[in-house]
């Protein structure tokens, strides 16, 4: 679908679209002008809390004998891993904190705690996904090659396995991200030498990550290495599931549009903004859920301003919602459970051939 064919767009004039762009630019400028010590203190505080929670969780896992102790430690470790992956790794890699000029908290130096190599992800995600959000054939994130999420994608027999493929993708999401980065390089007409180098870097990252989670930390636990090994494995699965929920609920719920490649031809800034707004969705969670999910419950605002610090998205969302009301545009949001239900309904309904659906 082209941007001009979206029903919720038809009532807007060209002047309206440009005025929307102007008002969104004002929001961006206001946030950029107000960035300062409070924001820097926030991200440093999150880093300290995440690291302290990680250490405390591992001590509880290895230092207690009870099942309750193991469950508590594993839950804390899963939260620490989610915090590092989403609020830290994802957002720092977007350059949200580059304005601080702190080499430790910079998009070019941060390496996240997962098997994917962050530099590969930055290109496939920051460029191909965010610039071409939901443009078929240009955004590699649509369905992650495993799920059919729109009727514009041709049906294949493999889609009959969607219930299984969906569960595997959710439980192993970090691996999907890692492989996805390599595929994005290949799709971007990279030379064979460049692809081979990227694969080498990915193999090295996987070896380091697997060694840390499944060799180093279990070895530190001595006789209790099995508890630590099981806890690390479980925490990684839980983290993967939570990341999957955040990503899929921000892009697939009913009302999130997909677009024809022609949409990017001569696309104005206002039309780009509209495409980001109409191709994403928000969901509602508590404060702990917001932070551990990298504030991607504000996916609309994140796609409008991907390099603005995540802690400012709640206040940005108030102004974006007001803008949507002003111009009679949809603001796709709802409780997490409802948005998750909508995503699962879509991917499972589209798993069968179109002729069998009503």
TrEMBL record:
UniProt cross-references to InterPro entries, sorted A to Z: FA_desaturase_dom (IPR005804), Fatty_acid_desaturase (IPR012171)
Organism domain of life: Bacteria
CDD domains: Delta6-FADS-like
Domain Fatty acid desaturase: 69-333
GO molecular function, one term: oxidoreductase activity, acting on paired donors, with oxidation of a pair of donors resulting in the reduction of molecular oxygen to two molecules of water
One Pfam family cited in the UniProt record for this chain: FA_desaturase
One GO location term (cellular component): membrane
GO BP, sorted A to Z: lipid biosynthetic process
Protein name: Fatty acid desaturase
